[in-house]
Every structure is written in C-alpha cells, then in structure tokens.
Design goal:
The chain is about 65% helix and about 0% strand. The chain has about 60 residues and is mostly helical.
C-alpha cells in the first residue's frame, strides 16, 4: 500500500489507531514528516488568530 493509499485509509477509518500509527511510522521513514517550531514568530502570530477562528466556526 502506498503512503497516499494509507493516508486515505486513515482518513476513512479515523477510529483505527493502529492504521494511524502505521501512517506516522511510514511518513517518518519516507521523510514525509514536517516539523514546526511553535516558538517562531509566525506561529506566535497565528495562534491567537486560530483561536478566534475556532470560536467563530459553527458546525452545521
């Protein structure tokens, strides 16, 4: 199963924790993972905006 197929499987079966861990492990081994530094200025600026957006988001 390709990484993209595994991703689609995880998204289709969100309760399947084993599939999620398999996807994360495969992503790491293929170098597809990204990391962020939450202390960088851009993230410090975005965090308050994300909180505001979450409050204003209404589920239908």
């Amino acid at each position: 199963m390709s990484l993209n197929e595994l991703r689609l499987c995880v998204l289709s079966h969100r309760e399947d924790i084993r599939a999620f861990h398999a996807y994360i492990d495969r992503s790491k081994s293929e170098g597809s993972m990204i990391t962020i530094n939450p202390n960088k200025e851009v993230w410090l600026l975005l965090t308050p905006m994300m909180k505001i957006g979450k409050k204003n988001f209404k589920r239908q």
